[in-house]
């Protein structure tokens, strides 16, 4: 029970970090007034939003992997069930 509780809190914290990173990335994205046009070319300054988006993606993938590794080994059925396998594939 203790292992599953730690994994639950790990997945929960990774999901929370991912959500917060997405919100921060959305607030830090480049604004319309940051756009510069010179000689028919557009220039945008670098924004930290990309880094926050990548951090959110990494946390989400790690949480998904940990969740699948904790749930899937404990799932043993005598007859094949296609619905859980389908849901597992769709969750990715």
Automatic annotation (TrEMBL):
<feature type="signal peptide">
    <location>
        <begin position="1"/>
        <end position="25"/>
    </location>
</feature>
<keyword id="KW-0812">Transmembrane</keyword>
<dbReference type="InterPro" id="IPR052222">
    <property type="entry name" value="DESIGUAL"/>
</dbReference>
<keyword id="KW-1133">Transmembrane helix</keyword>
<keyword id="KW-0472">Membrane</keyword>
<keyword id="KW-0732">Signal</keyword>
<feature type="transmembrane region" description="Helical">
    <location>
        <begin position="49"/>
        <end position="71"/>
    </location>
</feature>
<protein>
    <submittedName>
        <fullName>Uncharacterized protein</fullName>
    </submittedName>
</protein>
């Amino acid at each position: 029970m203790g292992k599953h509780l730690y994994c639950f809190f790990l997945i929960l914290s990774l999901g929370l970090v991912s959500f917060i990173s997405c919100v921060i990335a959305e607030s830090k994205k480049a604004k319309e007034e940051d756009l510069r046009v010179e000689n028919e070319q557009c220039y945008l300054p670098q924004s930290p939003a990309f880094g926050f988006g990548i951090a959110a993606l990494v946390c989400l993938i790690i949480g998904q992997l940990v969740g699948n590794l904790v749930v899937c080994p404990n799932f043993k059925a005598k007859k094949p069930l296609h619905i859980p396998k389908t849901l597992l594939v769709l969750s990715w």
